[in-house]
Amino acid sequence: MPPTLPALANGKTPGQVPPAIAVERLTRAFGDRVVVSEVSFAIPPGEIFGLIGPNGAGKSTMVKMLTTLLPPTSGGARVAGFDIAHQAQKVRAHIGYVPQLLSADGALTAYENLLLSARLYLIPRREREARIAMALRDMGLEEAKDRLVQTFSGGMIRRLEIAQSMLHNPTVLFMDEPTVGLDPVARHSVWDRVHALRARFGTTMLLTTHLMDEADALCERIGVLHAGVLEAIGTPAELKASVGPQATLDDVFIAITGGQIADEGSYRSVREERRAERSHG
Fold first, then answer.
1. What is the distance between the terminal CA atoms of the chain, rounded to a whole angstrom?
2. pTM for this one?
3. Which CATH architecture has domain 21-280?
């Protein structure tokens, strides 16, 4: 069983703010195969942090551990101040999660999806309508609230899923490949909404991506995960400077991983894209 991490409040210097996410030698193995190996990092409150790396690098496994969907083999982490192994229920109450796989129900309207999420998050009945109305407005979906989600574009689906994950005002939001399968216009629309949410609520966000323009546009700091090991961490500018004066994040990615950046709708196409992602970890 993973050890209980010491309370973050212990040993703090005066005025120090505890991290929103604190990861200490987090490891996950499946049999003899180590997928995440002794990863450590910390994310301060309000930061947008990105994990980049090739397929199979361990990004999704990392997110599944931090969201309590998968127990670590060793090491540990605290999310919103709670231990992922020993206080899983409290972690879940303080986070939002946008998975790679399609989570919105195409047979329901946008409003019905949000109402279902409000019930699952145990939002009091008297607050639900106001929360749903705000979420629709924040994600630019007010005019589409009574449409079936199966008629939505890929970008609209993703914005709805983010709206669902934010209904309970989480302290930390996890997004696993938030713009998978979207065209550039839809990606930029999602980015704008993410920035607006962070500005409004101060939400800490951790996202995974293998789109370097997305990492550059959204993230204040980036961790490069390769073969389960956190090979580098820093601001986009710091990472680019470490490779060369004219380097891009593409160059950083290739220099560290030796890999290539993966490629990039309708409801059906988004569903198929995300099902394919399941096999990559």
1. 23
2. 0.82
3. 3-Layer(aba) Sandwich (3.40)
